[in-house]
């Protein structure tokens, strides 16, 4: 290696001003220390809860309880780290656009490659600290047996490579979108199948430790690092030859040219069903008595950033839905609720992205006080913003309901389960409503769109994932029947628990009496809990806007 190359590499990493600035900003905040503490507490709680309860352990063998504990620890950490990586990386470049500093970054003497490397390394350093900080916890599990030190090292290597890969996906998406929320949604949709595939691989290869070790240590890092290099080069190339940039660093988007250059799906606002989620630009005067907030949101906000995000969301979701339809609705119809899980996860990722910026965007443009001084009531303001964005979320989610309709019509096993299929539709519809209401509330009670979106994701994960996780953990650890019953009752907050509580007759699940009978009290409880929560959150939003409106009048 020549001296010039050594100096060049040194400056790319160690003398990179972007990297230095990002590290100082990210690692010196209170959030960094709080997140590290919460992450450690979560993992420690999982280990303590899953610690073998046997009176005596035979450490000369591989006890199944110890193996179960280690696998649970790794899968839990992998899922948590995978969810966190895009949240750090998706705002690296899109955040510069939102802060109106993107033009200055492009005009700096830094090479695009140096900028991308600095952004990726800085965004993932915090997650790397979290992963390294978990090593003492897993070391406590090694004396129990069930896993070797080499498997632990291979698992951590695979985890680090996965986090770097997911971070590269987030940075590349961030270079293509002007808003962090859009980049975050596309990143999550692209990462979702990778996370599912990795978890299935790790669980299915549990009995083949040597083979899993070789794949994790050799094959996966090679493909992962190659993908990272390619995506980093794509993001750097986009910064080297950026699109047209107008005032305040905003990209100039020509919708007609974008439609001509689009690969795959093309959105045509003047045709059905495209006009339902991407209405055409306004070409006539607003009708008398119409809600001006609704009219503005319907015709101005959606297309202001182009159609790339909508096209990617539709294409990725349909591409994933087709194989899932074949597996869960035809070949293994006893697992039909898992298709509903996919639809709900899709809406959890996509739906809040439209609502989370509804109020915060007014704050960021410094127009919220002006909006509150208008004669519009808080109900009219919230209704105008909610209806338009909820319609987009609901229509996009409805595209994924067609496979469920086809499965229910073409597969005769579902014909005698019509009420169960109807229950799936109702649960998904309620999920669309609840997700959008929570996202709108987070947008009202926070100051930035990115914070509102991440807060929404955190609330939804707590409501939807925690109850079935508690129930599964109680059964996995073979806890007492009263404890399991109490854990099951928390499922009234989760649509996932409600989906699996729907009854299926003998034609679909002949060998599972628990599935056949169902748990209708969980289903009814979910609908009641969701209705109460929507009413309570709506009342809180109206009171908040009225109080803010009173301050503006004063």
TrEMBL record:
Transmembrane segment boundaries: 32-52, 72-95, 116-140, 152-171, 183-203, 215-236, 308-331, 337-356, 392-415, 421-444, 451-470, 520-543
InterPro entries: T7SS_ABC-Transporter
Topology with respect to the bilayer: Multi-pass membrane protein
Compartments in which it is found: Membrane
Keyword terms of this UniProt record: Membrane, Transmembrane, Transmembrane helix
The UniProt record lists the keyword Protein biosynthesis: no
Pfam short name (any one): ABC2_membrane_2
Protein name (record): ABC-2 family transporter protein
The organism of origin for this protein: Stieleria magnilauensis
Source lineage: Bacteria, Pseudomonadati, Planctomycetota, Planctomycetia, Pirellulales
